Amino acid sequence: MSFIVRTVARTADGRDIVRPKSFDKAELSIGRSPSSDIHLPDLAVALNHAVIRTAAGGAVEIVATAGMPFLVDGKSTEHERFSASPGANIRIGSHSLSVEPGEGDEKGAVVITVERVGAISNASEEKEEARVFSLASVLPSRRIMAWAGVLLVLAIFLAWPLVSIHTQPTDNSRKVAFHADELWTSGKLSQVHRSLENNCQACHVKAGESVRDTACVACHTKVHDHADKAKLLEAKGSPGIVDGTKQFVGGIFGIQPGRCVECHTEHQGQTAMPVTDERFCTNCHEDMSKRIDTALKDAADFGEHHPQFEPTIRFAGPNGVPSFRRVSLDANPKEDNGLKFPHDLHLSTTNGVAQMAKTLGKAEGYGAPLDCANCHTRDATGSSFVAVKMEPACGACHSLAFDQVGGTIRTLRHGDPAQVVADIRAFYRAGAPRNPALQGMDRRRPGDFASAAQRASFAQTSAMHIGNADQAIRAVFSKGGACFDCHTVRATGNPTTPFAVTPVALSRRYMMKGWFDHAAHDTESCASCHAVKGSKLASDVNLPKLAKCQECHGGQDAHKEVPSACAMCHDYHRNDFAPLMVRDNRARGKAVEHIREKALKQAGTGI
């Protein structure tokens, strides 16, 4: 048997409003609790006052659950059973519950009509129930309290900080204590600005005025901005209605777009300043060529939308003056560095070079076929490499020794053609009592000048080809000579210095608009990125192309690849230092220590 509860309410003009609700269950709860099936909002009613349920034979049973009686047909009781037909009248507090059988469509159900028939206990109106436990009668009115709260907030959080600002000294002599203007602070300063915690006026120069760029550049004097503000605004394009409105309102208060604080937000906590989000860059660079006239290529996500790398390449210019320009790696550019050096020959594992490296042995730092580390050495930062020098990197095989006086080996002066010519002329002017080793392409270790086989070879060379100083000089600077096969040699027409060597100019940094950190790639081999094993010319630009980098690196939100935002390789403020994202002092310190330990071990000193 189910129940239908009809709750009757009366309007101000006396009309009845009946709200029926059906319950398809055999028992209903009655009480003041909002969760009760029959809710009676009256303090005279317990939270869970009683239950009413159907019984056998078409009877209805009501039972008190809180130990409080109720009236059934005028009789006080805590438990009563009666027939659903004709029903009964139940009185609980100020409410009447009329129980009767359903008719028509409601036949078979028990209909309970709930109606308030008396005043609610302790109150004459329903709305006064909330005031029974209220302090409204002893407090000021809500209007008075609201105005008092507004004035209190203005006094504490506006007037007091303003007074504190105007009464504090403008220099850094403010006492370390609580000051009312700290109520406006949204958080602690970042780590780089912690020293300014007690010197608000360093940035907030004027009270009530936002931070100006002049306050920033007062300390950051060597910042090279990305571009002028007018060009930045043009590159960003139309700001739209929302941003345009913000710019207009900001202009009224002297706040112009492109300020330092738009990117370098402060009071975000005692942490390092966050790395610039990739979207900050792509807002301009994604389709910039459509908005302004620029030679820059559009760029967005590194993994999906980034132009090919364009390193700065050295080219031969008129009158020997070199020129530099950026060239895409897709064009496979050749650089003019003045050097003849075949990487493939020196990195072979089977040819004569490899065999000589094995012959030299571990005592000389070799003992195996050559690899990149035999010539290229990391710099102190670990991010790049020092310039290759002939003596330590090449001299083990390419000796410049030409004479021996007692136990001293005389060598030609590398890098100074005029001195080489002078030394040879001086050698012959002295009578040349010894056989000189000037046919310099015989590969030998420095100090092994006087072996018997070499003496015989040099004597034959001297007798057949080098009869005087001019012939010896010509032999050194010609094909097969000590200088020719590695350097670009040209005749000068000057009898005093008949030959000149093109100076070697090796680029230490190709990506002038970006940054690459070798220290972060220690787990990779050089050949995994640089295709040097197939390079036959020193003019080859053996830099990895974009596709090679994309094998490991994706965009900022990449999942499979290494997430690589713009700030990993580029810095907004252009300078010669690494971008903020890779400028980690602790990591850099570890890299430097690693390089130092490695160098000491190679030198045989240990740690």
UniProtKB/TrEMBL annotation:
Coiled-coil features, chain-numbered ranges: none
Stored Pfam families: Cytochrom_c3_2 (PF14537), FHA (PF00498)
GO CC annotation terms, alphabetical: cell envelope
UniProt domain Tetrahaem cytochrome: residue ranges: 192-286
Gene3D superfamilies, per the entry: 2.60.200.20, Cytochrome C3
Transmembrane segments: 144-163
Any one GO MF annotation of this record: oxidoreductase activity
Subcellular location: Cell envelope
Superkingdom of origin: Bacteria
SUPFAM superfamilies: Multiheme cytochromes, SMAD/FHA domain
UniProt key word Translocase: no
Listed CDD domains: FHA
Domain FHA: 29-93
UniProt keywords, alphabetically: Electron transport, Heme, Iron, Membrane, Metal-binding, Signal, Transmembrane, Transmembrane helix, Transport
The protein's required cofactors: heme c
InterPro entries given in the database record: FHA_dom, Multihaem_cyt_sf, Multiheme_Cytochr_ET, SMAD_FHA_dom_sf, Tetrahaem_cytochrome
UniProt name for this protein: Doubled CXXCH domain-containing protein
